[in-house]
Amino acid sequence: MSWADSASGGDSDTSAFTGACKKLPSPSAPDFTNRFNQFVMHLCYQKQNWKHDANRRTSQNIHDTLVKIWYSPLLFKWMTVLNRQGPIPDGAIAIKEEYGDSTGPIQFWSGMVHDSSLWWDGWYWSVVGTETTGGAPPPAPAPATTGCAEAVFPTNGPTSINCIGCHASAISPAPGAGTFSGPEFIDPMTSGGTAGSIPADGRLPAFATHSQAQANPEPASGFTGRLPSSIFANVRMLPAPTIPCMVPESLDQVTSKPASKGGPSLFVTSNQCASCHDATNNAPMPTHMLFTPPGSSATVNLSTAGEWRYSMMGLSGRDPIFFAQLDTESTIHSKIKGQKNAPAFIQDTCLSCHGVMGQRQFHLDKGNGPKTLFTRDQLQSATSSYGALARDGVSCAVCHHMADDQGNLDDPSFYTGRFPVGPADVLYGPYPSGGSDEKIGDNVIPVPMKNSVGIVPTFGDQVGQAALCASCHTIVLPVYDAKGNQVIENGVPKTDFEQSTYLEWQNSSFVNQPCQSCHMPDNFKGTKLDFQIANIEDSTFPRIPEMGQQTSLPADQLILQSRTSYSRHQLLGINLFALEMFDQFRTDLGLYQQDGFLPPDPSIVFAQKNAVDGAVTQAQTATAQVTFDSATKNAGQLVADVRIQNLAGHNLPSGVSFRRAFLDFQVLDAQGNVLWESGGTNADGVITDTTGNQLPTEFFSPSQQTFQPHFWTGNPITSDQQVEIYEEMIQDPQGQLTTSFLSLDNKVKDNRIQPQGRSSSGPNADILAPVGTGADPSYQGGCGCSVVRYQLPLTGGLANATLVQATLYYQSIPPYYLRQRAEDASGPDTARLINFTNELDVNKYTEISNWKLKISSSGNVNIQ
């Protein structure tokens, strides 16, 4: 029976009921949540004489409370007359009263409303009231006046709330038919109510529109007097538009379509996975994937969803640095020959990785015509499902849908985000799978996932291989000049590698060690992990119900195996500057203050803090090592050779071309006072000389195109005006140094430290060749190192030189890069990044104090 039929053909009449108890609208109606809350809190289900449990009961302690469930006439008929066979009729409702004890009042309610046209599992889940408010619904957040409103974790809607983690383990005779409801506890003397009081219209819920026009981001507490960053000195003033808040993640809800509408869906948002694969409150059983390190009282959420959320992959659809870059590209390349809407073309291209699910789904639905382009404005729309998918970044359904049927996932045709995907009803994972619903050997159990989202977990060897990363970490882009012409080189349109991290790995001694071994470790600070990888109602839960007809799946379909090969979804690099922006400006960027899935335990470390801790650990233990080969006084000179050993399986730095690492070399007296320095900085991370004056090579203009060359033993540093910076420097077609990804025409410097084992005859050696390193043997023998010589006269203050120290620092967004953003564009996304740069309290975040991240230091070394 369809919902429309049930609405007009029910077994009783509700027309006599008015006010809160009148006929409810469809769950897809904008006011449904409020209407349903009122219906429940006014006890309309009681007034309509629904069948119900005879007494309050424990539900075998699966709920922390005592419960008493009320069943709408349609649900009761399905449970009894139809003996739970066939689809549950649309319009069926269960309302669970939850009590603190056997005599006290209702604390809150849980509700299930069935509408098979909404999403795959067919239930609209709702929590009315909270455990502490005595039934009153939580207040809506006040409109923001000096910032952006908090994203509010939803307590109603699709599978994104944690009800499904248990209810997917119910027997489901048809898609969307799963519920534990049975008649065993019902008082036979109660009478039935109306059969169908809620119509359906088949639309997804219409969530409240998010306020777009908000005030500028608030500075950190106690940080309001900070002077604007010197990075933006002498830059023309930007217009002062209202900077829109990013749409809150509470609106990033894209569910799997029901079978009747062609489901399951290829792409869904991460909250559809997090209800089971976060460290979701699993009471009364232990919550899996929470970890308390030895000797610590703090608990860390190491769940797949929990760690992914604050990885830069999870944040890629909200990354303020990326969006400022996109503003630059859309502005300076506003006209491209052959493109009627050049900014839209650029945005569609860049969002094929950073907003991949939205961009892919948009083109699957609307085609690939020249005018059919996925643009930035979709992500700022609170009602666009494509925008919601894109804001979810490189999400679960991206990597786990990547197919490798031909064993060539790293084929160049798949570069720049063009990876192939498998069928919508399959997700690939690292564990064995088979055709049985029962647990056999090491196979994963498939039924709960099929019930909740219509997807079968399937073994895919590719998820553990480096090739999985190739598509989005090998980016090839066209090169355009200032007039919008694509540069012609050797008779063909020119392209260039915007990043080549995967190719760097291929030409290294790490080639047999996949990316996942570093970026998805199987341990927490050396402690090997052993987890059950989902929080569901598994075989350790009590039988449901404890008497009568069993409504939970058989135990052999619910066995969760503890996995000793557990790969954390840490997925971190060392972009600490962006990670800390997501802390201080979290509300501006639309993220939750708390993870609503977790148990109510204040000792659990917030995911952002865990991500920062992991990134700092990676930066300072697995990135590079700084040592001295020698430091001697000879013939009135100090000669010191500093060795930097790259520990990573790719270049250092790697990825986008504007990142840089630099060497801070200090000469000290016996008391540790600095006598001479190359590579020091001011508070804004701008490199200075010994006296603190900014180096002229720190910023570029049409009249200032000089940059620091590469220094080595054959080209020593002899002045504090010189500094060793590991970086790429690239000119645009007009001969100007640029950070525009679509203008990368002529590489004039690339002395990034190569990985160990790099060979001039290895794969892609021509693409990866260093530039401007001269005869430096470090870049010819595959040592994965750089040796820098400092040669200074021991005159003046240096006569007291006793100690030397060298420290390698890293900047993912160097000062010159930030200034170029302000010079090249002036849209809201650029203004947002400038605001964040001016207001980010880097001294609060000690790992990036003075706008630089410490990688490694030699410590003080005696001069011989």
Walkthrough of the structure:
- With 864 residues, this protein is of the alpha+beta class.
- Helix content is 19%, strand content 16%.
- The strands form ten sheets. A six-stranded antiparallel β-sheet has the order 1-2-3-4-5-6. Strands 20, 21, 24, 28, 29 and 30 form a six-stranded antiparallel β-sheet that branches. The protein has a three-stranded mixed β-sheet with strand order 7-8-17.
- The longest helix is centred in the last third of the chain and has 15 residues, at 607-621.
- It is elongated, with a radius of gyration of 30 Å.
What's the average pLDDT? 89
Shape: elongated
**Amino- and carboxy-terminal Cα gap:** 90 Å
Helix fraction?
10-25%
Q: Over the alpha carbons, how many angstroms does the gyration radius reach?
A: 30 Å
Helical stretch tally: 20
For the biggest β-sheet, the strand order reads 1-2-3-4-5-6
Task: Describe the sheet with the most strands.
Answer: 6 strands, antiparallel
Helix and strand composition category: alpha+beta
Q: What is the tally of beta strands?
A: 30
What percent strand? Answer: 15-25%
